[in-house]
Amino acid sequence: MIKILNLNFYVIYYFIFYYSYNISCLVINVKNQNGGIVKETISANITDDTITLELQLLDSTLITQHIDFTKEVQIVQVLLLGEEERGQKPYQILCFVNHIHANEFISPDAMAKLRQKNPGTVRVAEDNKGVFNVTIDMKIKLKDSIHISQHVGSLCSEAPDTTFTSKVDIDKWAAVPGMYLGNLLQTVEYINYKIPKSNLKLCRDTGKVWSHCLCTMEVSIPWYPCALKFCKDHIGKKSTAVESYRCGIQTCTKTMNFMYSVKHKQHCLSIE
């Protein structure tokens, strides 16, 4: 009996140690562009080489930004609450899957070492990266999405018809070691409603509910650690040699404006 208890203790200890060492979580209060205060949760998984950032907007919209560093893949999941009195579903999910360079966010290993000294402090990003316009022209077939990243299928399982990417991103991933253009092309299909995008109006400028139009989804990440800061110091009091050491993080904010065509205006969802 004692041996069994000891074994269970070591199993539990190993699980706690493994989880705390490989997965870390940071919860912070940040000020968004409109001056409102939102709570962000950023978790790093060293084993999977991933970082996940989650935040809930003031209108209850849920944003999840998931970065797969190995595959150079960013998944932005948007969960919008529906208006049931208008016959809408309780919620709807959209996923935007795009290429991201590994140096646009600090690594999971560096993220795991961050500690929150003053949990109540409201953070403001130091650097505004501006607005990134992303033109979407492809839908991802979830059953084949593992060719892009194993995380697409799990994060976007409830968005089989609204998981998007672009041909530009497909071509960028084809240059990533271990990813192949043939497999990537099997994963996607073009969004094509027979009308050239150049002739499309923005959905917000279209009065007809059944019109084919260009939908925009603007997603802002108000605060994220985008780089490490390094300071320099002399090795010794009398030495002229200088060494660099890590002394903090650079924080950024950015906005992604996803643009994609929809068959009818009523299919265009947006963050209020």
TrEMBL record:
Q: Which UniProt keywords apply?
A: Membrane, Transmembrane, Transmembrane helix
The yes or no answer to whether the keyword Membrane is present is: yes
**Domain of life the protein comes from:** Eukaryota
Look up keyword Membrane and say if it applies. Answer: yes
Q: Which residues form the Out at first protein BRICHOS-like domain?
A: 24-173
- Give start and end of each Out at first C-terminal domain: 203-271
Q: Which InterPro entries match?
A: Oaf, Oaf_C, OAF_N
Q: Which residues cross the membrane?
A: 12-30
Which family does the record claim for this protein? Belongs to the OAF family.
* Entry protein name: Out at first protein
| Species | Cinara cedri
